[in-house]
Amino acid sequence: MSMELNKKYGLFTAIAMVVGIVIGSGVFFKAEKILTATGGNLPLGILAWIIGGFIMISCAYTFSLMATKYERVNGIVDYAEAAMGKKYGYYVGWFMALIYYPTLTSVLAWVSARYTAVLFGWDITGGECMTISGFFLVASYALNALSPVLAGKFQVTTTVVKLIPLLLMAVVGTVFGLDNGMIVQNFTTSVTEVDPLIAVFTAVVATSFAYEGWIIATSINAELKDSKRNLPLALMVGTFTVMVVYILYYVGLAGAVTNQTLMEGGQEGAKLAFETVFSSLGGTLIFVFVIISCLGTLNGLMLGCTRGIYSISARNQGPNPFMFKQIDNATNMPTNSAVLGLLLSAFWLVYFYGANLTTPWFGFFCFDPSELPIVTIYALYIPIFVVFMKKESDFSVFKRYIMPSLAIFGSLFMMFAACFSHGMAVVAYLAIFGVVMLGGVFFSREREL
């Protein structure tokens, strides 16, 4: 049996993978927040999408260069280990397993339920929505744990489905808005007065949720033909394509309803936009595609969540590595790791509800888990980029210094913007982050098994 991965993917397949991985629920979920943060100022919102997009592109390009040096490297934990050593790689993995994957997975379960609730006219913060959130969380876990093959097919199907509402609204909504003058009206008028600097900072942090996921695409380099040329190109073209699609969708929404309607109506406003352009029946059908898109993103995150502790245990680190690195013979899944991932996601779903959807349960210790964990990832990238510039003397000045410097600047911008827009919630998050990471110290020693 061969132990080597075949070079089977070409450039266009790689670009499609990047686009399919990155595009998900974020653009639907965060478009309203970006519009609200900018006071209904459409040009400011588009500027935020562009800034967030270029931060993504610069970071993705730098990691793609690392992928050409480390063809067996698979994922952020391994990149961290290759650049900074095993200890740093362990703490990145600990953060991913206990905070990053389960927080985002829980948020996606709620986002999927939120759109379902909107479809049926239910309260998005009530018992119906939270019950559906729990069901989606368990169903996604079951799909990944019981049938990884079926989960993979579901992921491919939803990748195609998720592009339908985006492209239709981008094209048809824009034409519709140019014809009736709605786009001109929305571009030239603001709903409320806002401080442009604060507005852009808040909106850029919101885009981070929509743009997240590109790091996963670097894992295909060992299976990519002429990866030293094609992977950086695929990352650049793919991420740029995502940014353009998001902006066009954002403009398409502006061609359907007024900015004020979207700001006041939230997801009801988005549903109204689809119904305005495509009729009531057509709009409802396309909104179903939006829900399927969200479920596809949830499935992808659950895939990572079920393997969170496993990625640490495979290195003989973490709590009881022998137990958590066991693979089920029938499903080829790390079952114990998957169960823990589900429990962590359920915990963070309860936290998300208590911190963001009702009268705060946790007092000072409340934060938005859909944004701050992602900003933390950008902070963790910075040492990796610095070491890259110091060590990788084989690359040209542009690849070794310019792009990593832009990536570092973009990561710092994202961190500063998060502090600016979230205020004291950042302190609350860092306190919880510190406790979780301190807990990881007790399991950092590599075990002899």
UniProtKB/TrEMBL annotation:
<feature type="transmembrane region" description="Helical">
    <location>
        <begin position="277"/>
        <end position="298"/>
    </location>
</feature>
<feature type="transmembrane region" description="Helical">
    <location>
        <begin position="159"/>
        <end position="178"/>
    </location>
</feature>
<keyword id="KW-0812">Transmembrane</keyword>
<keyword id="KW-1133">Transmembrane helix</keyword>
<feature type="transmembrane region" description="Helical">
    <location>
        <begin position="9"/>
        <end position="29"/>
    </location>
</feature>
<feature type="transmembrane region" description="Helical">
    <location>
        <begin position="372"/>
        <end position="389"/>
    </location>
</feature>
<feature type="transmembrane region" description="Helical">
    <location>
        <begin position="198"/>
        <end position="221"/>
    </location>
</feature>
<dbReference type="GO" id="GO:0015179">
    <property type="term" value="F:L-amino acid transmembrane transporter activity"/>
</dbReference>
<feature type="transmembrane region" description="Helical">
    <location>
        <begin position="401"/>
        <end position="418"/>
    </location>
</feature>
<feature type="transmembrane region" description="Helical">
    <location>
        <begin position="233"/>
        <end position="257"/>
    </location>
</feature>
<feature type="transmembrane region" description="Helical">
    <location>
        <begin position="44"/>
        <end position="67"/>
    </location>
</feature>
<feature type="transmembrane region" description="Helical">
    <location>
        <begin position="88"/>
        <end position="111"/>
    </location>
</feature>
<feature type="transmembrane region" description="Helical">
    <location>
        <begin position="333"/>
        <end position="352"/>
    </location>
</feature>
<dbReference type="InterPro" id="IPR050598">
    <property type="entry name" value="AminoAcid_Transporter"/>
</dbReference>
<keyword id="KW-0472">Membrane</keyword>
<protein>
    <submittedName>
        <fullName>Amino acid permease-associated region</fullName>
    </submittedName>
</protein>
<dbReference type="GO" id="GO:0016020">
    <property type="term" value="C:membrane"/>
</dbReference>
<feature type="transmembrane region" description="Helical">
    <location>
        <begin position="131"/>
        <end position="152"/>
    </location>
</feature>
<dbReference type="Pfam" id="PF13520">
    <property type="entry name" value="AA_permease_2"/>
</dbReference>
<dbReference type="InterPro" id="IPR002293">
    <property type="entry name" value="AA/rel_permease1"/>
</dbReference>
<feature type="transmembrane region" description="Helical">
    <location>
        <begin position="424"/>
        <end position="443"/>
    </location>
</feature>
